[in-house]
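In the current project phase, we have settled on a layout for protein records. A sample record is reproduced below.
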Amino acid sequence: MSGTGNPPDIGTCVDALELLCARVAMTREAQLPRLADTAEVPAGAALWSSSYAKLLLWPVASNEGEVIARATDEGEGWLDALLSQAEQSPAIPLDGYLVLALPTAPAPEADEEIRKVELSASICRKHLVWPSSAEALAAGAGPWARVADVTMLGLPDAITAAGDGLYWPAIGDRAEALWQELQGKGAPAVALADAEAPIPTGKPA
């Protein structure tokens, strides 16, 4: 089982994720659900949900390779159980994102290990984050590095916020008329009528 100690100031990591999750219509769960046959959830873990995805923040006890590997297995196992449970109700596939929070910035020699974890397509998409260095903070960086690199969260600023539902874009009158005709007559009948229509012979004005 992974340790239960919090990475330094895990609350600031939660806050950074909260801000980005809100922009893509994901809401933080007040409590994490209890799941059978899964690892104990480490202190500081948090979960965000929407109709299309779930994102789990999973603190890691240390930067040791075997601890990271174990935390990855436990976190993706917990998230897999949650996704499986959620997908049993409405048959809507959900994306899963696991954010592993390291207690400190990893050593440069750990780059290959980090790349291996993040490139793994098993169960869910995975990202590692860690507290920013003093130099990065002095340069204006946020308290946690790489948070904005999480696949679905690193979106550019937009005029309108993301919504949690589907909507039809506004279309022109001709497109609307064609759409209504397709709905009323069906695509084969509309295509046949279009093929049989006389070709205009007059020159354009």
Q: What stands out?
A: Helices lie at 10-23, 65-86, 111-119, 134-138, 173-185, 187-196. Strands lie at 27-28, 46-49, 53-59, 95-101, 125-131, 144-145. The two ends are 78 Å apart (CA to CA).
